[in-house]
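Why does residue order matter? Because the sequence determines the fold. Keep that principle in mind as you read this record.
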Amino acid sequence: MIIKEDFCLTPFNTFGIEAIAYELSIINSIKNLQELFNAGLLKKKILILSKGSNILFTGNFEGLVLLNQIWGKEIVDEDDEFVYLKVNAGEFWPALVDFSVENGWGGLENMAEIPGKVGAAPIQNIGAYGSELKDVLISLKAFDMVEGRTVEFQNHECKFGYRTSIFKSKYKNRFFITSILIKLSKNPKLNLSYKPLADAFLNIDNESLTVKDVSKKVAEIRNSKLPHPDKLKNAGSFFKNPYVSEEQLNTLIGSYPDIPYYKINNDLFKIPAAWLIEKCNWKGKRIGNVGVHKNQALVIVKYDKATGHDILNLANSVKKSILTNFNIHLELEVNVV
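Structure:
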């Protein structure tokens, strides 16, 4: 058990915010977590950090950061139709997608190029282009930092929702996810329900498409819209797409006949946050060293030295505009610390 003090977190968040962890411990096994618990160190203020691709630091972290580096994956079972894969929390998500695609297994191809590590995926219920983690997850194992033991959660117990789970709400900061168990298909049924993806394959016989074709196209679409953090500091989509009732949607259509929307159920509709932000003239706008990306209005970028507060202030200004013009409350997808 090694505790590092005054540890610089700048390389461990994709915004590149300058922040210091008062203490940090590298976690590469469940044994490390048990040792920290036995020493009483998990009673401190805790932050679990993976790749830092969905976090915004607004100052130093006055507590103990647990840096997730539990590597490894293995096939635990398979039959003629499915393969069951256990993946440890420190594995990089894009590498996992590439691994499944190279083997011809279906289920992850629509989520190609999502940055971050596997351990963070259930917390956020990551998803893209019509697919979400909950669609393939069987169960997960996590270390209970309150009781000092490993527990297992089945899919339904995770309470997955749109970019959320029980680990982001009721059990926030209580469990350190150590591994997930996912079910991938050996006879994939491709999901082309998301319009940009369907349009990309409009003139192609879908029967000839493979998971590799879909994964490659998703990567192309993402890279054409989203800036790479190594070139322009960002944390991906900063805002969630809001849901509105049928009554509110009809009111919006009265004022904005061209407003795009997607039906969730009989009285719930999803509005693209990017459209709302662009309609309020934020797309491509820069204030000091922060701004809204020119190609994707969901992304806030850091051009030069800026603080987390600079980024948060811009985000709050965007939210205020949306509320004023559309009476819609935008929620942040990025975790603010």
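DSSP finds eight helices and 20 strands in the chain.
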